[in-house]
Every structure is written in C-alpha cells, then in structure tokens.
Amino acid sequence: AGEFTLRLQYLPNSGSDKQVGIQVNGSKTSLHAIKSSADWMDVPVRLRAGDNEITVSYDGKRSFYLDKVTLLRR
C-alpha cells in the first residue's frame, strides 16, 4: 500500500493532442493530456495492499498507441 507513480509511455499518435483517462480501484476517472509525438506521462496513484485495478481508457476518434506501463514506488 502507498503512493506510486504510474508511468505511461506512448508512441506517436495521429491527429491533435488527445486525452486518456486513468481510474484506480473504481475512483473517479482523471483525464490527462497526451502529445501527438512519442513521450511519457507520470500520474501519481495511491494503491492499497493486495490486489488493485488500474484502468487506462481512451475514447477518441483515432487510435492511441500505448507502448509501456510502469509502476514506480514514490
């Protein structure tokens, strides 16, 4: 249990800048902007002991290319 950083690394995405949603253990979804160029995004998350559920969502018109998801202890 504790504070972590969720790092999302993504490939170049077509079109203008987009947003992805992050939801942790059923909490309200938070929206985070991503660039159209390859980059990464760090999102602070609080996890509980045991099992956790992290959902990354995207509902844009074109594809979103997520390359790697990493969880780092803060």
Features:
74 residues; mainly beta; elongated
Q: What's this entry about, in short?
A:
The protein contains no helices and 6 strands. It has strands at 2-10, 18-24, 30-34, 39-47, 54-57, 66-73. The strands form 2 sheets. A 3-stranded antiparallel β-sheet has the order 4-1-6, with no helix packed on it. A 3-stranded antiparallel β-sheet has the order 3-2-5, with no helix packed on it.
**Which structural class should the secondary elements be placed in?**
mainly beta
Please write the string of helix (H) and strand (E) elements. EEEEEE
Main sheet overview? 3 strands, antiparallel
Tell me the strand percentage band. Answer: over 45%
- Chain-averaged pLDDT: 92
The main sheet orders its strands as 4-1-6
Determine the fraction of residues in helical runs and give it as a percent range.
under 10%
The poorly predicted ranges are none
Number of DSSP strands? Answer: 6
Helix count, DSSP H or I runs of 4 or more residues: 0
Beginning-to-end CA distance, first to last residue: 11 Å
**C-alpha-based Rg, rounded:** 13 Å
Shape: elongated
Model description:
With 74 residues, this protein is mainly beta. The chain contains no helices and 6 strands. It has strands spanning 2-10, 18-24, 30-34, 39-47, 54-57, 66-73. The strands form 2 sheets. Strands 4-1-6 form a 3-stranded antiparallel β-sheet, with no helix packed on it.
Any chance you could write out the topology, listing elements then pairs?
Blueprint: E1 2-10, E2 18-24, E3 30-34, E4 39-47, E5 54-57, E6 66-73
